[in-house]
Amino acid sequence: MWAILPLLCAGAWFLGPATSDAAALSVSSYEKFHFQSWMAQHQKKYSSEEYPQRQQTFVRNWRKINAHNTRNHTYKMALNQFSDMTFDEIKQKYLWSEPQNCSATKGNYLRGTGPYPPFVDWRKKGHFVSPVKNQGACGSCWTFSTTGALESAIAIASGKLLSLSEQQLVDCAKDFNNHGCQGGLPSQAFEYILYNKGIMGEDTYPYKGLDGVCKFQPKKAIAFVKDVVNITLNDEEGMVEAVALYNPVSFAFEVTDHFMSYSKGIYSSTSCHKTPDKVNHAVLAVGYGEENGVPYWIVKNSWGPYWGMNGYFLIERGKNMCGLAACASYPIPLV
């Protein structure tokens, strides 16, 4: 049965003046100074009209971060590039989308019985994981999850780590129910690469972060997909086996407010959902482990190397946290 899934990462990064029904905060001189320091660090500039609203939003976020970090949580929060945005803005401009079919729920993965290693990190096994990239002003997380998975699969199979074109997927994969900067699914992007007979490299089809006209040149394709493996809906142990035995796995989950300020530790949430109709962001599991009795996934994001743990995060494993087992898949490369 087909499940409904939102377009992943739909929306844009341009945000107008923040709006909030909350009463205006009394902002201290120290908070004002910290906001100006953060603006300089992130090269932010605002109009005179927007400045006080952004300052208010920043201070609310900073106070929330500080309050969170004084409590006994498994992860810490910190200021980052999102700290002048309300979560409503991020949902409306970046994460919100129309629903679409999640093809990964039509599973074709046959799982064994284990046992599996207690710790796996493909980054430490060799030169198998490409550097963290940044999707920038385009709702294209699904393309980065896709290229990351295929880059790793090819490196594991052949020993050669490539950098593949997200922009080709943005521009060319629309016939496979993907929507460029408005969102899509890794499983459908793998299908596109399979039937398209290849994907070009980052160097010959560079990332623009905008919807464009398809410029695929078959003779310049450097990576190919032989088959697509869709892990059965909610089979998180199947994800463990795939990551342990084969290669990193693309998955989707629901981003909620606190995740935007994630800094380090094992992320978990009681406010997110576990159903495939709520997930809104695609990423790449490159490993797993356990810390102080809490199992976790090691996950590569596409928000640049300065977000989270050098562009990565840990998320609790074994509970279908935020729906992460709802739509997992990986490619089998043709090498």
From TrEMBL:
SMART domains according to UniProt: Inhibitor_I29, Pept_C1
Provide the Peptidase C1A papain C-terminal domain boundaries: 116-332
Coiled-coil stretches are: none
- The signal sequence is 1-20
Pfam families in the record? Inhibitor_I29, Peptidase_C1
Q: What does this protein do?
A: Important for the overall degradation of proteins in lysosomes.
> Which family would the database say this protein is a member of?
Belongs to the peptidase C1 family.
What protein name applies here? Pro-cathepsin H
